[in-house]
């Protein structure tokens, strides 16, 4: 983590003014006064409904060495070390950018509508076979989380893998300029954030903002099957372009894919040896191909790439397999959902072999704008009635998935609920040994509660 004297911190933030001992050192930063702040710099963030400046006194009581303070904020304390700044959030971002420049490491930035976290985890696992690597933890992928991740990075780290999320235009550009990646990855262009951006074309432009801070001569690794990206990459002339996808026109593409009970095997056109990932789904093969492209840019051997993918540990609720009640199997993919990722999850379940019956539990997909009803119905129609036995939906928009599914399956195999307890009871009443259940919805639907209820205690 960052370990600097206050005089250095003042230098690293534009227009900062130190009121205190320049030789005093901080070890790490925090924006949360409830953290253990011993030795840290406290950064009070000010939002529409909260003001971190109100907790500065608490921060010093918790052991903070110094605090930032917005210059025009009233009631400035006079008896503690402060660094006055124009804006505390901007100062956090500037400090992270300055610290990134002082670190002797390479940065890999990952964005995309779906698969960001899975791809980040894969890249971390593969690169860790040869380098000291750190990565974004949890959902620290926004304008606050990314700078905090950078500032938490140890100075002997060799590669930092940063996930970059967004809700609107300009956000990934900001993150990219803070992080200045050496390698950038765009996993795909989906429908997430249509409510804010209005079209997939705008989503593509937003994801391509990751190139804003990409170093000259750096590498952009992108989904080559996506026309919206292919139409736009010609504008980039000072970076290396590397594509991955299903089609053989890509630099990296799969030759063979086999869904196993505990993961997925595949071969790639670039290597003669097979790969195995301990996670389900064809879509994760494409995340793996993006990872392999990163690994080759950073000179990882094929042997270590194979080993890194095979020992992958995924962030929770991404196609996470567990034992269910009555001898069933539960696949928890409930972290988030969009039409693209929902169809991929359905395909995953349809491809699985060795189970007696297959159950889908699908909930609302959020932030889809005025196309949300047809998108949900389309997901229902994507279900193959010969490969799925029962469909259960949850939520008001989930009813639209049920409408689409009923066109494929009989109504005796499709059930819609707005009460989670009733949903759980209905699934429990039908579940038997060797059945498999896949659960997926947007994060706001909290379907992990259904997973917990159906899991073996």
List descriptors.
3 domains, UDP-N-acetylmuramoyl-L-alanine:D-glutamate ligase, Udp-n-acetylmuramoylalanyl-d-glutamate--2,6- Diaminopimelate Ligase, Chain: A, domain 1, Protein-Tyrosine Phosphatase, Chain A, 16 helices, six-stranded parallel β-sheet, six-stranded mixed β-sheet, alpha/beta, single chain, 457 residues
Structure description:
With 457 residues, this protein is of the alpha/beta class. The protein has three domains: 3-88, Udp-n-acetylmuramoylalanyl-d-glutamate--2,6- Diaminopimelate Ligase, Chain: A, domain 1 (3-Layer(aba) Sandwich), CATH 3.40.1390; 103-310, Mur-like, catalytic domain (UDP-N-acetylmuramoyl-L-alanine:D-glutamate ligase), CATH 3.40.1190; 320-454, Alpha-Beta Complex (Protein-Tyrosine Phosphatase, Chain A), CATH 3.90.190. Helix content is 32%, strand content 21%. The strands form five sheets. Strands 9-10-8-11-12-13 form a six-stranded parallel sheet, with helices on both faces. Helix 4 (116-127) packs across helix 11 (302-310). The protein starts with a strand and ends with a helix. The mean pLDDT is 94.
């Amino acid at each position: 983590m960052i370990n600097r004297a206050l005089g250095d911190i003042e230098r690293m933030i534009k227009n900062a003014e130190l009121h205190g001992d320049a030789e005093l050192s901080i070890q790490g930063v925090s924006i949360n006064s409830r953290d253990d702040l011993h030795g840290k710099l406290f950064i009070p963030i000010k939002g529409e409904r909260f003001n971190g400046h109100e907790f500065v006194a608490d921060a010093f009581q918790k052991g903070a060495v110094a605090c930032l303070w917005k210059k025009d904020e009233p009631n400035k304390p006079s008896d503690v070390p402060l660094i006055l700044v124009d804006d505390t959030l901007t100062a956090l971002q500037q400090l992270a950018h300055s610290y990134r420049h002082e670190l002797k490491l390479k940065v890999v930035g990952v964005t995309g509508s779906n698969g960001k976290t899975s791809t980040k985890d894969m890249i971390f696992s593969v690169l860790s076979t040869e380098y000291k690597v750190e990565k974004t933890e949890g959902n620290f992928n926004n304008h606050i989380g990314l700078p905090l991740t950078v500032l938490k990075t140890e100075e002997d780290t060799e590669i930092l893998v940063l996930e970059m999320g967004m809700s609107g235009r300009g956000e990934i550009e900001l993150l990219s300029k803070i992080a200045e990646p050496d390698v950038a990855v765009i996993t795909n262009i989906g429908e997430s954030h249509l409510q804010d951006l209005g079209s997939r074309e705008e989503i593509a432009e937003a994801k391509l903002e990751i190139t804003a801070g990409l170093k000259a001569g750096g590498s952009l690794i992108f989904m080559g099957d996506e026309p919206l990206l292919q139409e736009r990459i010609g504008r980039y002339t000072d970076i290396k372009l590397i594509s991955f996808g299903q089609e053989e026109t890509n630099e990296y593409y799969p030759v063979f894919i086999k869904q196993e009970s505990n993961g997925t095997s595949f071969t790639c056109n670039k290597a003669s040896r097979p790969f195995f990932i301990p996670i389900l789904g064809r879509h994760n093969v494409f995340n793996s191909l993006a990872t392999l492209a990163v690994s080759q840019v950073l000179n990882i051997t094929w042997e270590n790439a194979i080993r890194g993918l095979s020992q992958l540990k995924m962030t929770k609720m991404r196609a996470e397999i567990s034992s269910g009640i009555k001898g069933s199997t539960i696949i928890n993919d409930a972290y988030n959902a969009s039409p693209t990722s929902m169809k991929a999850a359905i395909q995953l379940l349809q491809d699985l072999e060795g189970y007696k019956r297959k159950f889908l539990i699908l909930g609302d997909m959020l932030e889809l704008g005025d196309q949300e009803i047809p998108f949900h119905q389309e997901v229902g129609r994507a279900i193959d009635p010969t490969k799925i036995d029962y469909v259960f939906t949850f939520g008001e928009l989930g009813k639209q998935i049920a409408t689409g599914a009923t066109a494929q399956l009989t109504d005796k195999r499709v059930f819609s609920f707005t009460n989670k307890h009733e949903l759980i009871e209905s699934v429990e009443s039908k579940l038997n040994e060797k059945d498999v259940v896949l659960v997926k919805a947007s994060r706001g639907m909290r379907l992990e509660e259904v997973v917990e209820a159906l899991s073996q205690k």
